[in-house]
Every structure is written in C-alpha cells, then in structure tokens.
Design brief:
5 helices, mainly alpha, 0% strand
Length: 103
C-alpha cells in the first residue's frame, strides 16, 4: 500500500464526535458480542480445544451478521455504521495489540 493510500484510509476511518450518536447502537452490539465471546472463552472445554475469546467473538459476529441481520432490517440499519467501525478499526487494533502482547 502506498503512503498516499494509507493516509487516505486513515483519514477516512477517523470517527468525529458528531458521528458518535449514529455509531453507538452498533458499538453496543459489538461490545455485547465481545463480552459473550469473553464469557465463552472462559469455558474450560473451549480453552482446551484452542478457542480464544477473540475467535469466539468473531464467530458470534458472523452468526449474527448472517442470521439476525437479514431477518431484522431495522437492526441492520440502526447498527450498521457502528458495526463497520468495530470490524474495521477496533478489530484491527485488538488483533495488533494481542499479537504484540504475545511477543
């Protein structure tokens, strides 16, 4: 990726204070799925089989995104922007921090 493309991507993903009210429903949904992933990640059997909280949260997000979203269009409309920020910016940041922690 060129420097210009990287700069353009970073600038376009900036979240302004005016956008927060529009993002809150999706961020809350993502937070709930993350909390569920953390709770499931504490189950001994899942730990023994190599399922981390991050993996479980991603799988839960995939399940909700492919089952609930198509059935409840109002949920998708209300939370879409916040979910996009979560899966683009926050997920990347979490992945980076987990990778750096393991080093």
């Amino acid at each position: 990726m060129t420097t210009t493309a990287l700069r353009r991507t970073t600038e376009s993903s900036a979240v302004t204070p005016r956008a927060w009210p529009r993002l809150l429903p999706g961020l809350a949904l993502s937070g709930a799925l993350a909390a569920a992933g953390v709770a499931l990640g504490r189950i001994g059997w899942l730990q023994d089989h190599g399922f981390s909280a991050l993996t479980l949260a991603i799988v839960l997000g995939m399940l909700v995104g492919n089952t609930v979203y198509p059935l409840v269009p109002r949920l998708a409309a209300a939370s879409g922007a916040g979910v996009n920020v979560s899966k683009q910016s926050l997920l990347r940041a979490m992945s980076r921090s987990l990778l750096n922690r393991d080093r």
